[in-house]
Design a protein that fits this description.
The protein is of the alpha+beta class. The chain has a domain of 148 residues: Electron Transport, Fmn-binding Protein, Chain A (Pnp Oxidase, Chain A). Helices cover 24% and strands 31% of the residues. The chain contains five helices and nine strands, in the order H-E-E-E-E-H-E-E-H-H-H-E-E-E. Strands 1, 2, 3, 4, 5, 6, 7, 8 and 9 form a nine-stranded antiparallel beta sheet that branches. Helix 4 crosses helix 5. The longest helix has 14 residues. It is globular and about 60 Å long. Bound molecules: flavin mononucleotide. The site of flavin mononucleotide (FMN) has 16 residues, from strand 2, strand 4 and helix 2.
């Protein structure tokens, strides 16, 4: 039986009034990574937010067709925001042809979101290997078992491949890093901090990089306020 219009939930009736404190440019850290650190800490301390490091990564084909998915942030610093994935996946292929990405942190219980846009690059192989070694044995096997984003016949096929790998690399043995698996760093050129308020009078403050993408020392950011 299908839902009728009457018993289906109507998203048009769903409305939240955000009761939050204002965000002004004077409150912001001098650069976006320090500001991200402040908000990330507050988010991680809030029990209402499950997986505060979950973010939506959007990529696009060279022709401009976008796609999105959730991934986990695994590292960040002044160089950028890093996640790990399969380079042969849809996102990997799109980034190979068009190396720009958007990252969105949807922290709804705090009426906050952060949006990072910038150029995406592969992290060094040593960084990938170091992170892979920290993953549980089962996740290391999982990275081999799944040719991410390819069409498969059944779940049984995936499990059979996993069992085969578990027999080849039992617990306690070193699982090699799959060549097509690794980190992606998004080097921000803009970072927007969004704080929701009553009556849709939200704060949106965006850091925009002024001196290109390189040069730690020459890094300067302009902050601009956007209409909500
Ligand atoms: C909470 C959550 C965390 C995830 N973390 C990752 C991750 O860190 N890396 C990853 O490759 N996929 C992760 N996934 C799976 C992706 O959303 C996606 O299904 C997969 O990467 C294939 O995406 P693609 O076909 O668009 O490339 C996660 C999914 C969820 C819901």
């Amino acid at each position: 039986m299908t839902d009728t219009a009457n018993d289906a939930l109507d998203p048009a009736d769903m409305r939240e009034q955000y009761r939050t404190t204002e965000l002004s440019a004077a409150d912001l850290a001098p650069e976006p990574i320090a500001q991200f650190t402040r908000w990330f800490k507050e988010t991680a301390e809030n029990p209402a937010i499950h997986e505060p490091n979950a973010m939506i990564v959007s990529t696009a084909t060279p022709g401009g067709r976008p796609s999105s998915r959730t991934v986990l942030l695994k590292h960040y610093d002044r160089a950028g925001f890093v996640f790990f994935t399969n380079y042969d996946s849809r996102k990997g292929a799109e980034l190979a042809g068009n190396p720009y990405a958007s990252l969105l942190f949807p922290w709804h219980p705090l009426a906050r979101q952060i949006i990072v846009t910038g150029r995406a690059e592969r992290v060094g192989r040593d960084e990938t290997v170091a992170y892979f070694r920290t993953r549980p044995h089962g996740s290391q096997l999982g990275a081999w078992a799944s040719r991410q984003s390819s069409v498969i016949a059944s779940r049984a096929e995936l499990l059979a491949r996993y069992e085969e790998l578990a027999a080849r690399y039992p617990e306690g043995t070193q699982v090699p890093v799959p060549p097509e698996w690794g980190g992606v760093r998004v080097v921000p050129d803009a970072v927007e901090f969004w704080q929701g308020h009553e009556n849709r009078l939200h704060d949106r403050l965006r850091y925009v990089r002024e001196n290109g993408e390189d040069g730690e020392n020459g890094e300067t950011w302009r902050v601009e306020r956007l209409a909500p």
